[in-house]
Amino acid sequence: MRVQADADLDLVLADIETLVSCESPSDDLEAVSRSADVVAALGERLLGVAPERIVIDGRTHLRWRFGDPVVLLLGHHDTVWPLGSLRRLPFTVEDGVLRGPGCFDMKTGVVMALHAVAALSDRTGISILITGDEELGSPSSRALIEQEAIGCAAALVLEASADGGAVKIARKGVSLYRVHVTGRAAHAGLEPERGVNAAVEAAHLVLAIARLGDRSVGTSVTPTLLRAGSTTNTVPAEAEFAVDVRVRTVAEQDRVDAALRAIPATLPGASVRVVGGANRPPLEPESSAPLFALALEIAERAGLTPFHGVEVGGASDGNFTAALGVPTLDGLGAVGGGAHADDEHVIVALIPERIVLLQELILAVRERTPARNGGRA
Fold first, then answer.
1. What secondary structure does DSSP assign to 69-102, as a single string?
2. Number of neighbouring beta carbons within 10 Å of residue 203
3. Residue 202's closest CA among 245, 238, 246?
4. Exposed end of the chain (fewer CB within 10 Å): N or C?
């Protein structure tokens, strides 16, 4: 069986408009639930079966399974855009470019996944998992993603492409920390010497922690949001700041974690407490290499627009599947740009090509790994 290469683009675009028009900021549970209803209805119309609706900690995720999964298609329907963004940035298609909040990251990818599978007469061995909290770091869906990926021969992630339509063959791992500093308050004018300045201690720590980065191996350690003190005339008794860590390897993730937790306080009387840790492990190139080679073969054979593979600093749910040893290829969704920005957009002409690429990848993986009968509990 081969794919249906002439998908109805007008119908695909109409479905993207329907999904983009249902705003779904990750931190609004009701909005995410409404968005899940829309995705479920689209999928049921295209696939002929309703999804399993999975609500964890109030967040709604959707899953379609066709037999015991061999290929996992992974995406999310939540976005970073607050309610009301559509009034300022309405959905449009002009001069071959589709625009609207969340269209690139990653509602077009969700629609592409549903249409790709709908075009296959035999869907055995395919699982589609669309989560509702990826933009938050997948706190409620991580275990679900990992459970669904175990035993699969491939995870195909419908996150948007990188610049120029490149697929994502590696992603940095992410660790997130909060550093809490405790000092001692005192009057800043009358007797500052009696205080232990938590803001000054935090400044020492910020500099020391930033030095843990190593550009030669792609490790960034970035102190970000910082808060200290209570009033302008009081020596600060408390301070805290956030730290964002990005790494290419698990070894670097472990190194930074150990070093950060071992940094001592500088000022006598100050104390330091570090909370947090690894949010996502890295997706290393070895995880994507076989699937990337397969994608290149398919593109050449099918006459698709050429693309290359890149490493990106951002993370996705593909980091989780790769860490399990499941071959993972990311960035298979929309081609465009402007994720999380006002110029977010999708190149319409490349949507059918990427649907074909996805379909052919599914078929190739299944041909190499025959689907198993039955299903999971």
1. -SEEEEEE--BSPPTTHHHHS--EEETTEEE-TT
2. 17
3. 238
4. C
Q: Give the Å distances, CA to CA, from 303 to 5, 22, 201, 299, 361.
A: 12, 35, 60, 6, 15
Q: What is the pTM of this model?
A: 0.89
Q: Taking residues 314-318, what's their average pLDDT?
A: 94
Residues written for the chain: 377
CA dihedral 173, 357, 294, 336 (to 10 degrees): -40
User: In this structure, is the dihedral angle defined by the CA atoms of residues 155, 253, 312 and 137, taken in order, positive or negative?
Assistant: positive
Strands (E), 205-266: 220-228, 238-247
pLDDT value at 49 more than 80: yes
Nearest to 269 by CA among 205, 185, 327: 185
CB-CB neighbours of 174 under 10 Å: 20
Q: Whose CA is closest to 105, among 76, 131, 133?
A: 76
Q: Residue 11 and residue 335: Cα distance in Å, rounded?
A: 18
User: Helix or strand or coil: residue 339?
Assistant: coil
Tell me which long-range contacts 3-7 makes (C-beta under 8 A, separation of at least 24).
3/119, 3/120, 3/356, 3/359, 3/360, 3/363, 4/119, 4/359, 5/302, 5/352, 5/356, 6/352, 7/115, 7/119, 7/352, 7/355
pLDDT band at 370 (very low <50, low <70, confident <90, very high): low
